[in-house]
Amino acid sequence: MLPKHRRPTHPGEILKYEYLDLLGMTESQLAEFIGISLNTVNELVSGEHPVSSDIAFRLARFFNTSTEFWLNLQRNVDLWDTFQAHSHEYEKISPLKTV
Known about the structure:
Elements: H1 11-23, H2 27-34, H3 38-45, H4 53-63, H5 67-90
């Protein structure tokens, strides 16, 4: 379920505070360990880059989590952002009435 009054936490923020900081790992080390560019990790941690399926597989493998964990975090952010951008349009749609 999505929060109603705040944007869900970006997976990059969870990556930084719940994984990297707790493990004492740098963004540069993570980039090397999972085979992506430092720039991508920097953008991910700062919330500028989404968790793609590829990144989810890499993070899940490295941290022994699931791809669904990372993708669900990203999906929540995407749903929130989309709803915020288009809610006025969605309100204009009348639900289908069945007989």
